[in-house]
Amino acid sequence: MDERIPRDFETLRATILDRRESLPKRIAQIAAYALDNPDDIAFGTAASIAASAGVQPSTLIRFAQQLGFDGFTSLQQVFRERLRERNSSYDERLQALRAKAEGGAGHRAIFDGFVAAASTSLNDISRTLDDAHLEDAISLLAKAQTIYVLAKRRSYPVATYIAYALGKLKIRNQLIESAAGLNAEMIAFATPADAVIAISFSPYAPATIEEARTISEQGVPIVAITDSSFSPLAQFARVWFEVAEADFAGFRSLSATMALAMALTVGVGEKRRDMGRKRKA
Known about the structure:
It holds the Pfam family SIS. Residues 137-273 form the SIS domain. This protein is α/β, with parallel strands linked by helices. Helices cover 60% and strands 9% of the residues. β6 and β7 form a beta hairpin. α2 crosses α5 (57-66), α8 (107-128) crosses α13 and α9 (131-142) crosses α13 (255-280). The longest helix is centred in the last third of the chain and has 26 residues, at 255-280.
């Protein structure tokens, strides 16, 4: 077995992202589709996947071979295994963690596992964060009349923290979330003088992507936090950050995302204060 061939989805994803700049146009197109729609790749036919991605079926074979596989079926197995792992219930994940604890290491082993995952995430973002992107995002957000915050599901805790912190800094903001289903009405108030922080990770919440598309069409600049240059959220963003979170026993950390959210929020507060001083000078 060739050890260079990706054998799990995370390795496959990292390989695709590492090679994305050098991939031929059509192969890059199917690569983007594969990362955005991994469930479709797992169980679709070559014909149906090719039609959905807008390429010829032969492109799927060339895509697989580009990654070292002998054919598309071999590549498809990686996507199917990911789906089996993802579909394991939280009860099963907890049982796995409980087994680790009962194996002699105790619950401290579980704690240490989560700490290790968080540390990995934080070290990765510290190493890869683009300083110019950070400055651009803070400058964009600091000029906004209102900062809208958009996230769903796993990303939602980060959005609530951002809204809370912006409020404490007395920066006008709006969390796009309504129990009454008034998200569309909230979004309609956003103008090009405002800005949006949008957060979504694979398997990207459809509502987040659709609302980001609507806001973008209104001319509102978006700062996105996501996990891939192929993310559908990245295409709408003026500035976007790629954050890869590590996981432990199937539970993925939010440590790096939260650190970035804190940096953006506090950075905006500092930037607005500097802008205020210059206006008074």
